[in-house]
## 1
Amino acid sequence: MSIWIPASLLLVALLTAFLIGPFFEPALNGALESIERDSFRALLDSKERALRALKDLELDHSMGKVSAEDFEHSKLALSLEVVKVLDDIKRHGGE
Amino acid sequence: MIEFGHFALCLAWLLALIGVVAGCLVGRRSHVALSHVEALRRVTIAVAISLGCALLGLGYSFVTNDYSIQYVWQYSNREMPWIYKITAIWGGMDGSMLLWCFLVAAYCAFVARASVKYPRPLLPFLYAFLNTSPLFFITVTLFFTNPFRYLRSALVMPDGNGLNPLLQNEYMAIHPPTLYLGFTGLAVPYAFCMAALASGHLSNDWIRLVRRWTLIAWTFLTAGVVLGGHWAYLELGWGGFWAWDPVENASLLPWLTATALLHSVMVQERKGMLKIWNISLVVLTYALTVFGTFLTRSGIVQSVHAFASTDIGWVFLAYLSGIILLAVVLVIYRRKELRPDRAIESFFSREAVFLLNNLVLLSICFAVLWGVMFPVFSEAFTGEKQTVGIPFFNAVNVPLFLSLVFLMGIGPTIAWKRSSLSHLLRAFTLPFLGGFLVAIALVWAGITEFYPVLSYSLCFFVLMTILGELQRGLSAQAGVTQSSTWSPSTAATLFRRQRIKYGAHIIHFGVLVMTVAITASMAHKIEREFTLGPGERFTVGRFSLELRNVREEEHANYGAVQAQVILRSLKDDSILETLRPELRFYPKNKETTTEVALRMGQREDVYLVLAGIDESGTRASLKLFINPLQVWLWYGAILMIIGGIVVAVPVPRQAMAKQREKERGLQSI
């Protein structure tokens, strides 16, 4: 018998064992994951984006790229945005 | 083993199909069983394992000289060194498609392996779209370009045809796989993008992942394109590295859109703008990789790189249409979620410059695409095939590339949102002055052509902006850590904290070095044709060349005529090197190739080609090219690749935490 038949059978057996493995893992079997968490994720994104913008602004200011007036104005606006987003996150039950 | 390879290919097709169908079915549910998600992840990995087995099966047939297989018979022979037997796997269309399938599946497997940390809502559709590319390419391989076919003749052939002599070059071992790693890697951002659109999970997660994976593919694509240029420079013997050949252009097109994407993606990450624009770029980039494959394999354009023409063009066109149509439908469906969070406030902001940079890159892309497709369009509309050549591409692209270089100096230097006038003056006065002085110095030195002067001055301008940015960054960092501005520890801390920013500066510096080299090689190249007898001399530039003799050589799979030419310095008549250009004849393929003799130098390359010998076999016709600063092109490319790696490879979390702790300690003091 040519070697390719046992080699192919071995490949199929190994891959089948690999693929059906998750269905026999107690930790995974039966567990359900809600995929409707987008509004909360969006809030976390907004928080991250505002904090990053704040960091960028401070860096740009320390390198003299933005005027003192613009810096104060933008920093206040971004800080208010962060506070608002943190409030919203709290309301959603996040930390 | 060939049956095993064929079986593994069929198995991979089935698994990819399961991945696509099951991924879409699972993704449509509002609640997903984790076991299903994990099974989908494993299916994606299993596709790569099966394709790896298929590739091994084909490789085994090459190494064992199994000439009953048509593809092996066509592209290999017994005399070929073993390294070329391996490279012959991708020397023809069928094997190259199989390699393509394996690489795209390998990328998908790596993504699947890393995906346990990715946002769960994205995953089912991500696995579905990851498997789409392997499914398409395996379908093409299996049904149209199958490398596992037996020869129709009942006879077992004693020997094969052998690989195209032009491809019997060590660069062929590395250039196609590197280029394919670039092309195939761009399937990953596409999968993320489509999964985000299909699942409606359009938060920042997917765009962050797109940036990382695009950068990895971009780095490989850069390396692949440059290696291709280096192969053409060494092997084709026309003295240059880039001829705007349709297939070269096909590799440049997705590189341009991927470069645009890498810039605009930062705007979306930070400002929530350009959402539809970024989706369009991701889809366009992927579509252009498929288009490039179509171009190379359909036979619609003539190129030294193209594979034999086949009738599979329509399959690629159908897939291409499907990709674009699906993306358009999903974008329309999700249009409300894709509204920008804010608008651009000032023209003097980084986001505005990045948008401008995107427009220039897309203009270059369009110009190149137009040049590539012009013969097809002209034939369709006038019945006569007209081609556009190097002058068209240079005339359109040189000013666009130079404007891109200019923007490269502006973009990273100005602030997000709005730059102050005082900063603009402080940041750009000196670089502008420097660039202007360079222009005056060049004209004074006798270089009066407009584009070379503009190019060198712009490069100097950008170099000064990069150095200025570095100096400002070091000063700011020194202020935070209360250390000296120019101390190595300040530089190391700054680099660690802003690795992506300074990695991008390395890339930009590499582009500058390449721009200078390209300008020099275009503007100051020397080209001469002459004939020499034994002992005769020819003088050009700083060199003189003397023919010592012409001799014939026999090798395992080719015969050669070699001219031995002594290269001397004109200054003191000292011998610099003996150059040995060759003409090779491969009897199996009935083809003659030129082997260039090259003396690489920091100032210039001396590039000698043996064009022919006279009937007596003693006089040699030679073609000489002196290419100034050529080697700097390759150095620039290496810098770009290093920059790409710096930006793409994340710093281990432990090292980051340690660094933060150290900085906190310093601040508390």
## 2
Amino acid sequence: MKTKRIIRETIITILLCVAALTTVIPFLYMISTAFKGQVFVFEVPPQFIPKNPTLQNFIAAFASNNFGRYFLNSIIVTVIAVLSILLLASMMAYALARYQFVGRKFIYGLVIFFMTMPAMSLIVPQFIVAHTLQLTDTLAGLIVLDVAQNLPFAVFLLKGFLEDIPKEIEEAAIIDGASPWSIYMHIVVPLCKPALATSAIIAFLGAWDEFVWASTITNSPQNRTLPVAIATFQGVHTTNWGLVFAASLIAIVPVLIMFISLQKYFVKGMVAGAVKG
Amino acid sequence: MLSSPAFVIQDEKMRTKTARDTLTAYLFLLPGLIMLMVWLVYPMFSALNISLRDWNIMPGAVSPFIGLKNYLTAFQDDFFWLSLKNTSVYALVTVVGQLLFGLLVALMLEKITRGKVFFRTLFYLPVVTSWVVVSLLFKFLFNSSSAGLVNYFLVDILHVISQPVSWLTEANTAFVAIDTLGIWKGVGFSMIIFLAALQTIPEELYQVASMDGASEGQILRYITLPMLVPTIAMVTVMLTIGAFQTYIPVALITKGGPLHRTEFVISYMYSLAFNDLKFGYSSAMAYLLAAIVFGISRIQMRFTRRDSAVG
């Protein structure tokens, strides 16, 4: 019985290893290419371990391609967007979960509606709005749309979380004469920490990887974010793949570190998103 | 009875409390609502307006009202139908692929005791990697030269084909690359959902079944899979909606070419607006796409409701 189980588990593990290899090989090849000089990129047979590993692609990204600026832009946009999403979404969630008022159902319905709306389908009128407000080719224009796009899901997540928390502490605070704002700041926000963490991660991913809007409204190199910059590294005639993947690695490393260290929250967010109905 | 003084005071108090609550609630909602109004609600109505006009992007220029003409144009546009076909095939192939592999991996992970977290993390890597990066990566892997990794693998290692294929210059083979990417990137996601669903199946069911001498296969066939049906339905619909919104791979791998042959509805919509400046026609297409996606999510809601009724 026991040996049978061990054999079975070994077979399954081998199958899983094969599946994991197909997942990982493209990544490994990307890493290896990032360390290759341009002449070695299309070598036959393809090399997974570069013969003459070089850092020239990484150096070129920062030295001649203004990569530091794009990285900084991405950080500015993402940090401001995530913080704004957390603040606005938790305020909305608090109102929706704790207050009875006219229009509550309608507003929550709106939130749910926009959560299922295809993100790109409003890009034409959004572009016109951005143009009218003179937000095209600015980082602010990127931030506001990141906030609007990611707000509904964060509200949904936080409202659901708040509704599962008993109101007793808040009610005691009301009797003690605390204002709604101080209840929100000092009781609700600390209580919501796990849900805020999940929302922050999902929003971070959304803002950090946002490409379509950024490539639509920004023109000048000084307003480029990482995804747009990486896409433009793909040249019109010949692509310097080493450079593309060195840049890609720099862009995805923060995400991967965050994912691996905060996996629990990631998974929660994904599962919550799946059952949102 | 109703006019007893105590009751009136109570009633009065309630009313001011409700009014105050409403005010407080709206103050909390205001900043978020402004964002939603400016960037989602207004654009939604604006898109409808634009889609009914021959939209002129020059500021101050007249944009004549043309009714449903843009929508009718779409129905007579071969490229629209082709893009819809392309999107549907992509949806079919990638949804089935992600479901099958995701389910398979989840079931296998349930059976092992060691390395579960390790494997789960690996399978999830593509999910958290940006679409821009993985699209460029697949474009590179499917390079037409014999040094392209996929070509090398098929020609020199597996000997399935004798000549390297120039994958991205022809629609059918380009879709092989785009579809493979769609499956590869999404397996980890459906795996996570299936793992979560597997956790909710009561342990007793398995115990009773194995006490009755049910084989591994029978347990899978009569307990696990039936219990997963609501999840499978839900994931199917979610993935289908996702597939209909896929844009970046097409934009970065083929740019919709050659000659719009690899266009998806959403990439065609984008290129109509920002390459051809046909904002009206593009907005009509956006509405058609939204209608399709909402149709699918309606079905999803029906499934989720049945899901909660089952338990």
## 3
Amino acid sequence: MFGELLSILTFQAGYNTSVVLTGVIALGIGGGVIGVFSFLRKRALISDAISHATLPGIALAFLIGISFGGTGRNLALLMAGAALTGALGVLCVQWIRDHTRLPEDTAIGTVLSVFFGLGIVLLSHIQTLQAAGQAGLNSFLLGSTAALTAGEAELIGGASLATVLLALLLMKEFGAVAFDEGFAAAQGWRVARFDLAMLGLLLAIVAIGLKTVGLVLIIALVIIPPAAARFWTERLGRMVLLSGLFGGLAGWIGGSMSALLPDMPAGAVIVLAAAGIFTLSFLFAPSRGVLAWCARRIQLQFRTASMRGLLAMADGYLPPDRLSLRLARWRGYMDADAALTEKGQAAALDMSRQQRLWHTYRSRHPDAALAFNPLSGYRIEDVLSADMVASLDRETP
Amino acid sequence: MNPPRLIPFETKHPRRDAASAPLSVRGLTVAYDNKPAIWDLDFDAPDQGLIAVIGPNGAGKSTMIKAILGLVPALAGDVLIFGQKLRRARQRIAYVPQRTSVDWDFPASAEDVVAMGLYGEIGWCRPVRKRHREAARAYLDRVGMADFAARQIGQLSGGQQQRVFLARALAQKAELYLMDEPFAGVDAATEHAIVDVMRDVRRDGATVICVHHDLQTVADYFDHALILNVRSVAAGPIHDVLTEDFLQSAYGGRLAATEIRAIAGIG
């Protein structure tokens, strides 16, 4: 089984599987890239309204397909139907938000459930028809790669890459609107149009990905990769790159797993792969990650305790709390009889001199001192010029 | 006896030098729901003026700036910028929004934000190139922020963030600067940097209109003022405007009589 998975992952499991996998990877990249902009615009949840609003469109497109004598399973037709009612759903959310006092989350919840309810009604009607291919419609709920033909996968991959290119072209504009809407509007930009363009791209990626990932879970494809990417970088360009990478990775892993286990819904596997990436990012990212944050917190606690301990000892007191007492013993600043050692005396004197110099600096140059965090642990000689330190020394009692 | 003949309304407040005035506002009225925020405001900004907009909380100062820029819809009135409609004069204006109006956790460096001021010049769908980044750094240098170009904007202090906004406005190379409370909550170094930049751009021929909340410094930093309290209370050279009567009429009980006299005494 492991060998089989490896051959799928390395695109050696036959033409069809490889094409499908490529399509799913492209879809993941697309979701990751476009998701960054809805994430930064703080409208990530609207993709959930879009995806649920596509269901009546899919059902209607199926009905239209069979009424013209086809099987109703033409993917392009179903995508078009999905996009149509998806767009209608977005417009409803926008309209409710702009013309009532209801907040956007309420509008999203209302539109999402109403459209989904309508879709389910239509879907159960289709089930009574005994039409050919109706079973395939269920894959739109939870997604499947097993039913995907090579031609469909090419359509999915090509359309995903097209939306990625459009999003990259408008990256600078989307970023400016998300950061400072007022500034963009003051320059004469039609902010509403950029929002519509962004929602259009979001809609496109949802419609493209529906059959593979399923409408229930596709929201994860546009939210989790950008959320994971945000942990690693402070620059928009890199965030877009990483988010696309993470989405593609999730598509690669999830797509391979579902090729190996055809009964497993592809959407669920892809989402779990994305969740794995998210968890790793959330834990291990260097500056925004949780472990890094904990490490900083502990380091700060130790530094504070050490400073407070030394300052107390300089005045002839015992270190004030348990941590500072222990630190003083570990470092050999005091002996078992609570007497200051020679080393401790030197360290305490030095710390108290540092503190007095910083204090003088802050009172003489309050603005420049803003640049230095008092808890950063810098020695004053290391960050200020020798002349400045000498003059502070003269002015310090 | 004949009833009096009505004469055209425009003659009530004739525009002086409408063709060249950086900003000329007539009858501007803005309301949120049905409560007026600005009522029938007439105002002409003098060329190359440093103009403070002062008034109590809720006087409509920020609303005025936003209405001039078309960010909030006006119920009535018209605005001319250098004698032109706003649509044709956008490139000649730079806007410094309130610092609290944006998301400072956005993934961007100080340099990225300043480069936004160059987007008009760069054009749609074109990338920010090396020369734009260099230009952005030069503008950061002008506000004393060159060392912070690569810093994520959320890691800057409030005053430093304000200076980044100022550098972005400079990058727009505008002739009319509209600033919304740039002095709010900033350190002394930033305050000096803002004043220096205002004087610099004025020397280069620009006009600055700035919402200001600190009556103690208004006479030091500005040469003209508009006192606003939904309606225009007074407008003109700073010493004609900062009088006990006008301040009393705008602020009423919100300023102690002694404070008003002290400010008017400065003015």
## 4
Amino acid sequence: MKKILTVLLLVLLANSAIGQDRPYLQVSIREGFLLQKIEFLDGPKVLNKVEMQTLMAASSQEIADLYRKSVSRQKLASGMAIVGVATTVGTAIYILTPRQQITGSNLFWPLLISSAVLDIGSRILRQNARNLAREAVDSYNFDRANAPIYFDENRMDVPLFSHVIRF
Amino acid sequence: MRIILLLLLFFGMLHELKAQGTVTFKENIFNNNRYKIDGREAKAPEVAQLMANFESSQKKFEGGHKQMGIGSGTMILGVALLAAGSINFVNFNGSREDVNTYILLNGLGLTTVFIGRAIRKKGKRRVESSVGEYNLLNERSDKSTVSFQITPSKLGLRYSF
């Protein structure tokens, strides 16, 4: 009896250790006029890139991939946003400067269209980055990658018999 | 023998630790949140109902959601004003009055859009933080259950702490 109790105690301890050790991450998104910043928080502490990568890699490869994708999308979106603003400014300058001579090429439409495309593209990418970051953090927090078929609606192992004791 | 059996039983359950009623969300094309409770799609009122045990999160969520709606409405109003300004610009005939209306409508429209955007952003932040809070509280709260289950793949006790 004593042995069984010890085993029980050990298992419980191990479980509580597993449950408590894992940091609970949160995503905080700061949207500026042009750029956004995705911050990963562990309580009040802001985690930097290296810490995030190690955490995610320690959890699972899929989650690490999600995080990496999010970061790369974010980078691409920022680049596109900056280039987009540059083209917008270029369009404005092009309209406002008086032209000395009649040139063959008209830059107005290409500039306008490219600035619009860059703006919309960067918006979509930014949103994508936000969604991916949230997905990565949610999967990390709730361990969706490791939980078998739990999040599926039509999971296979529906209990045939179940008796729940609440306390 | 008994110990080995017990160990086996507990070994099976180690994988089944989880909190129920986890809320996740994703943004759609219009930057509106689409919520999921445990992977099942749900509307905002359902999420608010789920948060009933954690009143501060619930209040924050409901308030934030309302704020987002108000912000979106204001933004739409601003866009309508801008559109009205453009329509006015089409029938432009250079009179002083026309210029004044154009400037007035555009200025008003832009201001309204920016105010709406700010309100919406604030609401969105509140919603996001409330969901995060709720998930944390829900996961770490004492909802201890022990259940005995037989499933096609597994047999044993399942408990969540």
